[in-house]
Design goal:
- The chain is α/β, with parallel strands linked by helices and 246 residues long.
- The protein contains 9 helices and 9 strands.
- It has a 7-stranded mixed β-sheet, with helices on both faces. It has a two-stranded antiparallel sheet with strand order 6-7.
- Strand 6 (186-189) and strand 7 (193-196) form a beta hairpin.
- The N and C termini lie far apart (52 Å).
């Protein structure tokens, strides 16, 4: 029998194979298709002045097409584990063949500091070990790592947000999530497939060890009246980790 993590990977990739032709429609306005988020990321790019970028979990290449169209001076590449999505990037989104290669974020097939900027757009909550992906992103990045994803601590009613934060700080979140997911560690939904509980703040320590500066940007309408903003007030966050820029 496969380990649970192996089963999860098979379930997840089968979901993307089954939905590949409808992927762009099903996930319009999310992650790598969120135009407001991509506009903010373009602003971060201008600060870093990258010549090369890598999109980890490139899917059907929507983010790559966005940056190729709007910032043609950047050489943009992607990596994606599901071949059916890569095929759609070429046939549906006009991404040149070979620009997205097949592979996983946990083992990026590139040397250290290969790319000026390494990005992921709404994919880390689909990864069992996001810390492994983030470590690889920092390894191959030279100037910046940019992650856009959800933030469990900014989701739900206020008592639930505080409870989740308390459990996380007490190192009990894993046990609570085990009970919530009935031992699987993940949830399955028709719209999002297989997803794990993730917050960009889970990656904060790894990024802080690598970067000289961290920039956090909420990605939706919010109230900044709380001392905990944006930790408890934003359901999604962009984090930009910057090395010292010459």
């Amino acid at each position: 029998m496969l380990r649970d993590s192996g089963k999860a990977i098979l379930i997840q990739r089968q979901y993307y194979r089954d939905t590949a032709t409808q992927y762009s429609t099903m996930h319009a306005g999310e992650g790598d298709d969120d135009q407001e988020t991509l506009k903010i990321v373009r602003g971060l790019f201008r600060m870093v002045e990258p010549k090369t970028m890598l999109d980890v979990g490139a899917g059907t290449g929507r983010a790559l097409r966005h940056f190729r169209d709007r910032m043609p001076g950047i050489s943009a590449r992607g990596i994606e584990p599901v071949k059916a999505l890569i095929d759609q990037s070429v046939s549906q989104n006009g991404v040149p063949a070979g620009l997205i290669i097949q592979g996983t974020g946990e083992a990026l097939p590139f040397g250290e500091e290969t790319f000026d900027v390494v990005c992921s757009f709404g994919i880390l909550h689909h990864v069992e070990r996001p810390e492994a992906v983030v470590r690889e992103m920092t390894r191959v990045a030279r100037k910046a790592v940019i992650i856009t994803d959800g933030n469990r601590f900014g989701q739900g009613r206020w008592p639930m947000r505080l409870l989740k934060l308390a459990l996380y700080k007490a190192k009990l979140w894993g046990a609570a999530n085990y009970v919530k997911t009935r031992g699987k560690g993940y949830l399955l939904t028709p719209g999002d497939g297989l997803a794990y509980s993730y917050s960009v703040y889970d990656s904060f320590d790894c990024l802080a060890r690598w970067a000289a500066h961290l920039i956090l940007i909420p990605v939706e309408q919010h109230s900044a009246a709380s001392w905990f903003h944006p930790l408890l007030t934003s359901s999604g966050v962009i984090v930009c980790a910057l090395k010292d820029i010459e």
